[in-house]
């Protein structure tokens, strides 16, 4: 009896391992192995067009070069500005739309899908469409501004001062649907008894929002903030399609600069060093957010 039980348990375990095996192999081949290889390449100066003969060990020289690379610091600055503006803006707009949609009964599902569509659409296609909208002479946006009487319309993607804000506007528009869906789920999970008790106490809708809705949405806000910070620090496709880091490196961000170093200048080791620096920046920011959320997580 015991042997039969052990044999049956062994078969159950084997079946579970076989189900997990494809995913484990995928993680091993496409994530862990490249991760280890990139860590090794950090200490190399490798022109991969020359094959293995192009490998030169430079050890920490790639990191020392980063310190004196002005374009790297410019890219980091652009990334910080990009993340620092797009994440709060997307969260705020998503929250406002979620609160408004939650108050209406009609067309709620339709509008929710409509707002969410940009997030699930191809970022390349979206970038191309917005590039047309941003055309400084024939674009609909500037045509509309001219119809309102604005004489000095922005140059958008052709302007050193407007290119980065233009991409940020598009990214905020893209991520607003994502934040809206999560906030709506969070709002609908809040007990209605809290709002009924607040109504009895005479609390206004404004006070209910700041004293009930906002505190109860802290876990949702934490999730959105972490995911958006990671996503915006790795922004690539929008920059690649719309500006390619220009004009005058005004939209150069770390992910695109890594691509340029690796596949245009063939400095794979230097690109790998920047990739690990980017990873550490995202990791540190995430840990700071994680530590901050522990101050309020005991309330839930």
Automatic annotation (TrEMBL):
Pfam family, one: BPD_transp_1
GO cellular component, one term: plasma membrane
Protein name per Swiss-Prot or TrEMBL: ABC transporter permease subunit
Predominant localisation class: membrane
Subcellular localization(s) per the UniProt record: Cell membrane
Membrane topology term: Multi-pass membrane protein
Similarity-based family: Belongs to the binding-protein-dependent transport system permease family.
InterPro entries xref list: ABC_transporter_permease, MetI-like, MetI-like_sf
Keywords: Cell membrane, Membrane, Transmembrane, Transmembrane helix, Transport
């Amino acid at each position: 009896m015991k042997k039969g039980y052990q044999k049956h348990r062994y078969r159950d375990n084997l079946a579970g391992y076989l189900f997990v095996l494809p995913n484990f192999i995928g993680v091993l081949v496409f994530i862990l192995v490249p991760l280890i290889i990139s860590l090794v390449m950090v200490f190399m100066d490798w022109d991969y067009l020359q094959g293995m003969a192009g490998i030169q060990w430079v050890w920490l020289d790639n990191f020392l070069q980063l310190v004196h690379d002005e374009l790297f610091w410019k890219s980091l600055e652009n990334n910080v500005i990009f993340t620092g503006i797009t994440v709060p803006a997307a969260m705020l707009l998503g929250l406002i739309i979620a609160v408004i949609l939650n108050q209406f009964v009609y067309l709620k599902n339709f509008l929710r899908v409509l707002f969410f569509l940009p997030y699930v659409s191809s970022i390349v296609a979206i970038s191309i469409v917005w590039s047309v909208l941003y055309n400084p002479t024939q674009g609909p946006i500037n045509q509309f501004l001219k119809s309102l009487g604005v004489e000095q319309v922005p140059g958008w993607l052709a302007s050193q001062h407007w290119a980065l804000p233009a991409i940020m506007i598009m990214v905020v528009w893209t991520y607003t649907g994502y934040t809206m869906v999560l906030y709506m789920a969070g709002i609908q999970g809040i007990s209605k008894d809290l709002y009924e008790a607040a109504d009895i106490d005479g609390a206004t809708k404004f006070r209910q929002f700041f004293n009930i809705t906002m505190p109860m949405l802290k876990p949702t806000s934490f999730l959105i903030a972490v995911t958006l910070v990671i996503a915006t620090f790795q922004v690539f496709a929008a920059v690649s399609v719309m500006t390619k880091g220009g004009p005058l490196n005004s939209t150069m961000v770390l992910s695109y600069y890594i691509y340029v170093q690796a596949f245009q200048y063939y400095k794979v080791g230097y690109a790998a060093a920047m990739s690990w620096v980017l990873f550490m920046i995202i990791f540190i920011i995430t840990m700071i957010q994680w530590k901050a959320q522990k101050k309020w997580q005991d309330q839930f």
